[in-house]
Amino acid sequence: MDHGLYLDHSMAGTRQLVWWIMENRREYFDRSKLVPNRVKTLAFLSESHSKQWLDWCEEENIKF
Length: 64
Prior knowledge:
The protein is of the alpha+beta class and 64 residues long. The chain has one domain (3-59). It is built from three helices and two strands, in the order αβαβα. The chain has a two-stranded parallel ribbon.
């Protein structure tokens, strides 16, 4: 799925989207790293997932 394409064409707009993060692999993060700063809420399955994704975002200089 092209996340950017979905976000660009979402009728609700990105400010109303919740992005549910279910994978905690760098490969998934790399495919999705344009999404975290474009949505209203990120939901993680665990605290360890959120910490890992926040660390990756910091490494990539992605701001919320």
